[in-house]
Amino acid sequence: MTDNIYVFDEEVNKDSAVRLLSWITSVEPNENGLLVLQTDGGDADYADEIIKALSERPNIAIRAIGTVSSAGFYMYTRSNNHKSLGKYFRYGMVHYPNTYVNLNSIEFKNSKVRTPGEIVQEDFPRLLQEEREFDLQLLNKEESKRYIAAEDVYLPRKRMLEITEYLNNLLATKGSVGYLKEEETPDELTNYITEIAKQVYNAEEQKQKKPQTSNSKKSEKTTKPKTTGKS
Predict the structure, then answer these.
(1) 75 with 68: CB under 8 angstroms?
(2) Rounded to whole angstroms, how far apart are CA atoms 136 and 143?
């Protein structure tokens, strides 16, 4: 019997994420929670936080209804929660992360110190590669071709049932669908960014100091002979 039910049928954004996260954290460990999920997607950052929160509450099951697309597919497939499809579920949709292309077009300015934001952006291709690897394990050969070609891949109910069964088996046998990694906790990621930022700043400081010192010495050497000559 389900004690606590939440219906999420909207875009994934800041406001909807705050409401859903509040509900997730309110579900007691001894309760059986059910998240009824239907969404065409939204912000992947908020979806990722929802995934982490859900995975900390394995007593919450997820039932997809209607459609789960883009960030909705992301939420449904990656959390460590038992999954099922509603009677009238129609399709799921997944696509190749397109942020990779956008970020490759960014030309970093030749600034002396890069901001933490720029450093994180440099690391995005690696993170997005992990997303692609996770998606591709769920797709068959034909679906993978369309995915790599940056097409929206629509998955009918039959395929979503197969994916759901595969993920539930992973959860039952390994205790995880294999997406979340312990070493990638928010605190450690923040520490990593801070440490890299410090290293970059210190390196740039050293570079600035060395040329200044050598130039001052040169100027002293050239100035002294001139002074001596005049006297």
Answers:
(1) yes
(2) 9
One-letter identity of residue 169 = N
* Tens digits of residue pLDDT in 120-176: 666 666 777 888 899 999 999 999 999 999 899 999 999 999 999 999 999 999 999
- CA–CA distance, 19 with 9 (Å, rounded to integer): 12
Residues 55 and 89 in one domain: yes
- Split at pLDDT 50, 70, 90, the class of 45 is confident
Distance between CA atoms of residues 151 and 143, nearest Å: 9
State which residues form the domain around 173.
4-95+152-178
Residue 80's CATH number: 3.90.226.10
> Which two three-digit tokens encode residue 163?
């994916």
Residue 11 makes CB contacts below 8 A (sequence gap 6+) with 39, 40, 41, 42
Whether residues 30 and 132 share a domain: the answer is: no
pTM (predicted TM-score): 0.69
Percent of the chain past pLDDT 90, that is, above it, reads 55
- Locate tokens 């292309």: which residue? 101
CB 86 within 8 A of CB 57: no
Task: Please give the Cα distance from 73 to 78 (Å, whole number).
Answer: 8
Residues 156 and 133 in one domain: no
23 belongs to a structural domain = yes
